[in-house]
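Q: Got a minute? One more chain.
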Amino acid sequence: SPELEAASKATMEPPFRRPNPVPLRHDADRCIQGTNDDASISKMSCVSLGYFQDDFIHLFVRRRTRRPPMINRGYFARVQAIRQAVDNFLERTSRGGEGGGQIVSLGAGWDTNFFRLRSSSREPARYVEVDHREVTCSKARSMMKSPALRDLLADVGEDGAREEAVIDAGAGTVRGRGYYLAPADLRDPESVRKVLDASSVDYREPTLILLECVVAYLDGKATKDLLSMIAESFGDCCVLIYDMIGPDDPFGQQLIFNVESRGCPLPGIRSYPTKESHVKLLSDCGFARSGVHDMREVYEKHVVAEERKRTERIEFLDELEEWHLIMAHYCLSYGHNGVFEIGECPFEAKR
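A: Always. Here it is, folded:
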């Protein structure tokens, strides 16, 4: 991912230096949207090497590049933890073998989680994805071109006839069986709420809400407004946030410099720079219970041990000090509301 790539680059520039401010480009939104391409290429790198399985990412990624071992392992930790949270959520909300609950992914990019779940008949009752219009238009075009993806989105009507998903690539919207994709500006909670309303989510049902590398790109007020809207709208929910922390030490300063030098501002990491600030943010926004772990803790204590050991044999990584430094600058924070909980830790590995 672009953030992990920047972090990896930061470890290669000792001694750490305090970078000079970088003037941000006028097309910052476009630069931020472009991070989706980089993240998907990193995911494809992991898949091609066997870090994890994804049978659908190749339908979205146009360019393939092998990433360095540190980036591959970091991306594995992120994907594995999110998948564990999703699987734990679905296990607790399934109803007699049928999917229950809802998943909402804000800033979803080209994530393929829905298709992974649908192909194994483990999807929730409703899956909603939201992102910038340019990203959702690109994703909708890929779905339109792929018979395999359209098959997974199709439904069967009461008369037994196949009902195709409604795909509007120009508008960046897709409505399929239990699935909805639409654009919205995450800085505007009202536009996000309108998408959620249009998606037919049930605000009373248990809902898992994912925000991966979203908070760092929003300013503090926009993040608070978005999370407050979520807390007020959903009666039973868990929000899971993956993002950068630690901007004030030399490594964090170099990390920010490497990302912002590409034209991508990171106001959120300054607004919420520590694990403690993430917990306070979730509490201030109305979540009754919250917690946080940095990604080193997640990788060493929460990722399934067998998977961790298996992937460590794929590529040799000798820069352990740098690896620990990078992972300490990312975290997974989470907040719960209502009577439903995935567990004390949403991404806890099954014993």
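A: Confidence is low (pLDDT under 50) at residues 15-19.
Q: Perfect, thanks.
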